[in-house]
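Please produce the structure of this protein holding pyridoxal-5'-phosphate.
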Amino acid sequence: MTQNKWAAKINPAVRNIPPSGIRKFFDLVAETRGVISLGVGEPDFVTPWHIREACIYSLEKGYTMYTSNWGLLELREAVAADLEATYGVKYNPRNEILITVGVSEALDLAMRALLQPGDEVLIPEPSYVSYAPCTTLAGGTPVFLPTGLENGFRLSADQVQAAITPRTKILLLCYPNNPTGAVMDRAELARIAEVAVEHDLIVISDEIYDRLTYVGRHTCMASLPGMRDRTVLLNGFSKAYAMTGWRVGYAAGNPEFIGAMVKIHQYSMLCTSITGQMAALEALKNGKPGMRRMVEHYNRRRHLVVQAFKDMGVPCFEPGGAFYAFPQVSVTGLGSEEFAGELLKEEQVALVPGNAFGRSGEGFARVSYAASLDDLSEAFRRMARFVRRRGVRPRVISTPLTISAL
Ligand code: PLP
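Below is the modeled complex.
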């Protein structure tokens, strides 16, 4: 009774949000011994040494204060220069770039600054786990656009067009995609941009995996005609520079949108930690060669992981970016959660069930290949055993699992 009394005081918008499917599963993982986890979406590399050293040096020099609410101007200038050099999009570092506590905070700020109750947000699905809850908490309504294996988990302009109602305000994009690894080609993104312009939509574009693009070149949404001012571009340092724990990201966009986001940020976060910002500055100044080396490693693992699934008889489309594979585990006759649960129990390998990313993820699992080579090769040996026991016939394997050959 007491518990119900306190529960009743909680904001219903918060009470009604279901717990993350990932968290539920990883509570189980924490209780299991000898687990190899391919579940976590984070680089297995430690942040490169020169970045850590720059941060230590900044502390030695006494950089321990608040920064501007917007973030260090030098960092904003470096972000602006990087975006212009990479994508040809220009932002004024003084009023069009905000340094945030990861892309996570930037996403939340964008939603809270832009949404009014009942506004609809179009979200391609399977989708990153934060998108729907952030939409709901900001008073919006998520509208899912399912994508599937048959079209490489890509979104089409026709799908966007067909989902638009008078309440549609935002289209939320994430390419390269978490959880599928799908990338979009420029031509289709340009068609989607035309739909956004025609219907006056705002696009929030989460490009946190942009540097982890292995197939073709990444297209920055804001670089497409008519898109710079209607796009809130989100990016950060977590994935490309192996800096998940530093908690630094940014949002770039027109001064009205970014100014509104700063209003919330200044009263909630005040600023991102100066130590993290110092490290991010070093990453942008001198971190590109190290970042490219890490990306090469992911790319080699990507080929081997896709091959390993195909060899064991599990369909897996070739992801073009990020560091996830999204195999169709339903060939074993098991649903996503059953597959992940039984694999964990029988072989102590942890994956994320695909339905944690929405209904259209059912029948799949997310496998992160940002894991050590030893872990990957042992996990694949175990998985191959598991699916064989479920009657999946392996393809004729020309070479033994080659992950260990990396
Ligand atoms: N967006 C996507 C698509 C992600 O996959 C993640 C982390 O997994 C985030 C945002 C969160 O990024 P950050 O560490 O910058 O908050």
